[in-house]
Design a protein that fits this description.
Layout (H helix, E strand, L loop, with lengths): L5 H15 L3 H17 L3 H21 L4 H38 L17 H16 L9 H8 L13 H9 L6 H32 L11 H29 L17 H5 L4 H12 L9 H19 L3 H22 L8 H19 L8 H10 L10 H6 L1 H13 L12 H18 L13
Helix pairs in contact: 1-2, 2-6, 3-4, 3-5, 3-6, 4-5, 6-7, 8-9, 8-18, 9-14, 11-12, 12-13, 13-14
Length: 465
């Protein structure tokens, strides 16, 4: 069930009416049942795999709390390793298998004829990181392990963020599950506003842009020279509208139920440098990698060279996390190099803060650096990198710029500008308990959707990760 579908909306309305009028104790069971039902709609077998992960991590965290010394550390390492193997088998085994087959062919041996069929559970990268952060927090004694099994199941099966995040920290979500959910009119109107805005930008920007990209970038060798200078920003807005749209839907649904999720995006396209950009894009993943990988490796505590080496390790892992393929690895290393280059320029005094011209130039450069990097997601073999570079060696024709694309982005850019002007920490419509303001906003969205959005639904972009 996609958030932007009649099927999900009809199911959620029935669920929410029962949830709203139920006691707090009953609400917990409703969250559990709807979470199981929601995830099982994607694949029933994947639900069993998720429950295996839930039982393992719940049991291990409680066992860790009774241990100390070397034994505690040993079981903690085994737990993290088991989660990574679980993720690796389902997400990366086929890639390694095909790579091994290609290597055999390269050395003159016959390739592997048999190819295993392995199910890739939806959202496995997100809920595995969810569980790893839980084990780390318990091991570091920042939180106590859940004694109530159902609380932990709800933590892992909380349906607004189950498929695509944000990768919510256990220290934020579990206490909310354990406490009483108080639902105010402000919760309801703000939640509905966030959900409607999320569905709107998904339907009117992400889906049409996705179709444009598929038409333009089916094969790099047959593209019009220079067209990737135009296609790359379209991909950037497609991914942003798609993932930001999902995050807004998740935040909105949670808020309607009395929960507050972390904000996953904070106007990243206004960032003037790569460091700022990754502090505002996919914030839950960026901070997860910072806290659980970068800092654990030593962070910036061992000199400038070691700091940059740690960054490269983090972004290599970020690339692999996004998917098993040549393009994802190259993408991670590319972004790591961009960050290292910027930090080196800043370290040696080539970048100065407070320079308006440099800031504006930085916004354009940062946006295009990110946009061009997204082309790497579409690489199926290293040789296609050369085709991308050859295409980018030409300038595009002005006639190739699709006017409809520029017009379609207006609501999203205007909204982000408004939020930037208000300097909000999380998306806000400032309508709270004013239904009339909401109806005006809703009418504008519906009108824009009717004018510009072709009908037809696309899966959320990050489902593949």
């Amino acid at each position: 069930m996609l958030f932007n579908s009649i099927s999900f909306l009809s199911h959620f309305i029935v669920f929410y009416l029962i949830y709203y009028f139920s006691s707090n104790r009953i609400r917990k069971y409703l969250l559990l049942v709807f979470g199981v039902y929601f995830y099982s709609q994607w694949n029933l077998n994947a639900s069993f795999l998720l429950f295996i992960s839930i039982i393992f991590n719940y049991s291990l965290a409680n066992y860790l709390s009774d241990l100390s010394g070397k034994k505690r550390r040993t079981f903690f390492i085994l737990g993290i390793t088991a989660n990574l193997i679980y993720l690796g088998v389902f997400k990366y085994f086929l890639f390694v298998w095909e790579l091994f087959s290609d290597l055999k062919i390269g050395f003159g041996f016959p390739g592997l004829e048999w190819k295993p069929e392995i199910l890739l559970p939806v959202g496995i990268s997100f809920y595995t990181f969810h569980n790893i952060s839980y084990l780390i927090e318990v091991y570091d004694k920042r939180i106590l392990p859940c004694k109530n099994f159902f609380t932990f199941v709800i933590y892992d099966l909380f349906f607004p963020l189950l498929l695509l995040g944000p990768i919510e920290r256990p220290g934020n979500l579990i206490p909310q599950i354990e406490s009483e959910q108080k639902i105010t009119k402000e919760n309801i109107w703000n939640g509905i506003s966030l959900f409607v805005w999320g569905v709107f930008i998904k339907s009117t920007i992400a889906d049409p842009f996705s179709r444009y990209v598929e038409i333009q970038a089916q094969g790099f060798e047959s593209l019009e020279p220079g067209i990737l200078w135009i296609v790359a920003p379209v991909i950037a807005f497609q991914v942003y509208a798609d993932f930001f749209g999902y995050s807004l839907c998740a935040m909105g649904l949670a808020e309607m139920m009395g929960f507050r999720l972390m904000n996953n995006f904070k106007r990243p396209f206004f960032s003037s440098n790569p460091s700022e950009f990754w502090a505002k894009w996919h914030i839950s993943l960026s901070t997860w990698l910072r806290d659980y990988v970068y800092i654990k490796l030593g962070g910036n505590r061992h000199g400038f060279f070691r700091e940059n080496a740690n960054l490269m390790v983090v972004w290599f892992l970020a690339g692999i996390w996004h998917g098993a393929g040549h393009g994802f690895v190259i993408w991670g290393l590319y972004l790591g190099l961009c960050l290292v280059l910027y930090r080196s320029l800043k370290h040696y005094g080539f970048v100065k803060s407070g320079n308006l011209f440099q800031s504006v130039l930085g916004v354009v450069f940062t946006f295009y650096t990110f946009s061009l990097g997204l082309l790497l997601f579409r690489i199926h073999s290293p040789s296609e990198t050369i085709l991308i570079l050859k295409n980018l060696s030409h300038l595009p024709k002005l006639s190739s710029i699709p006017l409809m694309i520029l017009v379609t982005t207006i609501p999203l850019v205007a909204f982000d500008l408004w939020q930037e002007w208000k300097d909000t920490d999380r998306p806000q419509f400032f309508i709270s308990t004013k239904p009339f303001s909401f109806l005006i906003m809703f009418f504008f969205f519906f009108l824009w959707f009717s004018l510009f959005s072709p009908f037809g639904k696309q899966d959320f972009f990050y489902f593949q990760f």
